[in-house]
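ok trying again, last paste got cut off:
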Amino acid sequence: MITVGVVTCARSDFGLYMPLITAIEAHPELELEIIATGSHLSPRFGMTVEEIEAAGFRIHERIESLVDEDTPESVARSIANGVAGFARLFARWRPSVLVVLGDRFDMFPAALAALPFRIPVAHIAGGEITEGAIDDALRHSLTKLSHLHFVAMEEYGRRVLQMGEEPWRVIVSGALAIDNCRNASLASAEETARRFGFDLAQPVALVTYHPVTLEYDRTSEQINNLLAALDKSGVQCLFTYPNADTAGRQVIEAIELFCSGRADRHVIVNAGQSGYLNLMSVVSVMVGNSSSGLVEAPSFKLPVVNIGTRQAGRVCMGNVIHSGYSVDDIAAGLRRALSADFRRSLDELKNAYGDGHAAERIVHRLAAIDNMPDLVRKKFIWFQTGVISEAAPA
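nice, full thing came through this time. structure:
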């Protein structure tokens, strides 16, 4: 039996994991063990570890890491806490393979602590670029700490190869987010509007704005410009919470004040994966700097105003309108996104992030790790253009 330890640090990655952990649980040769850490264990972010259990999954271990502040020091201390916590865990229990996803500072400690214990690491969503965030460096560091790489598209796979990884370790699986889009059981528009308190007869914006961690000292200016542009537009607003990043509290305080006393503005601490997809299926526009605007939103042909540099470098579809940080830039992006002409231009939009079968590809490869070469003994390969291998060598 191959024990698969899946590390989840936030509501966002757990929602993405859902098709994968369901597939792992159903596989006769795989045993699922979930390790919860980061903001999952934070009351300020809704103690979302309870949602994992409510979904019917057992938590193998809780690793406390998050320092309840939003300064650069607290991020660094959270990383240190996480490394220490995972080290204690691995000293008494080791999975056959550890699965990590993405680029978060609270995901990084799991892979770093696994290194001296010679635990193979499988990394999902490597090779992507987000130039405005410290996540960019963390993602690429996770690639070098990992032994299998499940990437969303060929372009991202080539970046992983450029970092010296052996081609047989790199699998173009597609993005797990597209599995969720394909499998989503969507409520009616009317039911979603009732649940989240907005009027379908009027334009509504789903707003997800995270601090730009390489520009955290400008967070107040940036969020205030966004709110001024939204106020100017007159659209209804549904805000989701930011990640647990430096200056995140500035975003939370600003949006809560903006929504206070207004029936057409709401803050949603945690919509859940299903609720978030339902919102994307019915709102008029998405605004902010979340990766979901670039990855999931194209599946719903949803116009997106992507603000600033946080997602710079990530592959975008035709639904994305890029905006600067000024009030005028954001307002202009909103006007274009809400226009009937722009919406019609998305009628034939295809999502390049996958076909909705990523979990199947990942599980197939995880189930074969006993037949692979020594996973933890890596070679550096000089990058060559070409097709990424789909099979391990004999």
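cool. Residues 187-344 form a domain with the Rossmann fold fold (CATH 3.40.50.2000). Residues 389-394 have pLDDT under 50 and may be disordered.
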